[in-house]
Every structure is written in C-alpha cells, then in structure tokens.
C-alpha cells in the first residue's frame, strides 16, 4: 500500500506541466507544432530559450522533489525514491488531464537522478553537454543518460531491482524518442544550434 501511495503521488506531481502552462499563456499549442511534445526541448524551439529554461527547471525540480519526499516519508522502503521518481517521469509523459500527451520525460529523469545520486548526476550533466555539443543533437545526450543511469546505480547499489525500476522510465523514454532516430540518420533532426537560434519559433 505504501508503494501504491508513493507511485500515485509521484505520478500526480509529474502531471504538472510548465510547457503547457506557458504555451496556454502565450496562446500557443506545442502539441501541434515542432516535436508535438510538451517538454523543455519543444518549448525552446517554439517559445524561446527563456521558456525552455523555465520548463526544464520545473521538470527537473518536480522529479527531484518527488524522490526526496518519498525517501523522507518512507525511509524504511529501499526503493521509495526510485519508485516515486519513475512515477513522476511517467506522469510528465502521460498526464491524465492532457489526454496522456505530455513531454518526453528527460528533464524529469535527470531530476530523479539528481535526487538519487547527485555525484552521478553531475557527471551525467557534463556528459550530456559534451555529447550534445559534439553531435548537435539533444537526443544523443538523452540516450546517453537514460542508458547509463540504471546500469550504474544498479551496480553501485548491488540491486537488480533498482536497475529494473529505473529501466521502466528508460524504456518509455526510448520509445517516446522513436521518431528522432530516423531523422538523425537522414539529417532532418533539428539540431541544438538551430533550436537556440529559434528557427522554428512560434510568432
């Protein structure tokens, strides 16, 4: 029952979506333009970098908070933090009040990682920047993170269960990015530099 409560609370917290709120304020619909997702990357592309940063901070923060609250309220449960973090990521991706069409979950995944192991998050953050700058594709940094984190934390904590819990979010995020892979291969994927320049920005 405790895990059910943790998962439900994490999911509801994850449903909070800053990209949706900002788009509504600017009378725009991110789901019908760009990548069609309500996340930080699409907010940068269509609403500008300030909206993207605000969205990213919000998405990271809610998953960070979900993990910390779960660990604080249920210290006796070994995987409370991971369960809450994954639930928050899934809430971001599948918000019930938006017909289960949210973001792709990476910022929240990073926020979860930050709360579970800040040292790993620091290394991952550096790797994200390096990989993204080298490839010009944000999705490459995303893939590096979501594949590395479950493996490292599972080994570090000697816990297959922890790795499996985290892999739930990993698999879903991999699936949510399925349209990016062929675009990267044929060179039509929007790069970071183009996104910053706001080439697709909504007027």
Question: Would you summarize the structure shown here?
Answer:
The protein has 203 residues and is mostly helical. It has helices at 2-14, 18-25, 40-47, 49-73, 80-93, 106-116, 118-135, 138-156, 160-176, 180-186, 192-197.
Topology, pairings included?
Elements: H1 2-14, H2 18-25, H3 40-47, H4 49-73, H5 80-93, H6 106-116, H7 118-135, H8 138-156, H9 160-176, H10 180-186, H11 192-197
3D architecture notes:
The protein is mostly helical and 203 residues long. The chain has one domain (2-197). It has 11 helices and no strands. It has helices spanning 2-14, 18-25, 40-47, 49-73, 80-93, 106-116, 118-135, 138-156, 160-176, 180-186, 192-197. α1 (2-14) packs parallel to α5, α5 packs antiparallel against α6 (106-116) and α6 (106-116) packs parallel to α8 (138-156). The longest helix is centred in the N-terminal third of the chain and has 25 residues, at 49-73. The N and C termini lie far apart (48 Å).
């Amino acid at each position: 029952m405790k895990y059910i409560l943790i998962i439900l609370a994490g999911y509801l917290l994850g449903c909070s979506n800053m990209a949706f709120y900002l788009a509504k304020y600017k009378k725009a619909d991110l789901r019908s333009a760009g990548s069609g997702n309500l996340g930080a990357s699409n907010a940068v592309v269509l609403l500008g970098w300030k909206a993207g940063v605000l969205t990213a901070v919000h998405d990271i923060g809610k998953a960070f908070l979900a993990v910390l609250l779960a660990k604080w309220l249920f210290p006796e449960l070994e995987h409370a933090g991971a369960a809450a973090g994954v639930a928050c990521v899934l809430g971001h991706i599948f918000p019930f009040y938006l017909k289960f069409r949210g973001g792709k979950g990476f910022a929240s995944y990073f926020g979860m990682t930050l709360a579970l192991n800040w040292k790993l998050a620091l290394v991952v953050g550096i790797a994200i920047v390096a990989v993204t700058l080298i490839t010009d594709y944000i999705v490459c940094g995303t893939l590096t993170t979501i594949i590395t984190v479950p493996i490292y934390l599972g080994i570090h904590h000697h816990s297959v269960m922890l790795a499996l819990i985290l892999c739930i979010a990993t698999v879903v995020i991999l699936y949510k990015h399925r349209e990016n892979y062929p675009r990267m291969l044929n060179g039509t994927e929007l790069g970071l530099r183009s996104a910053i320049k706001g080439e697709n920005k909504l007027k």
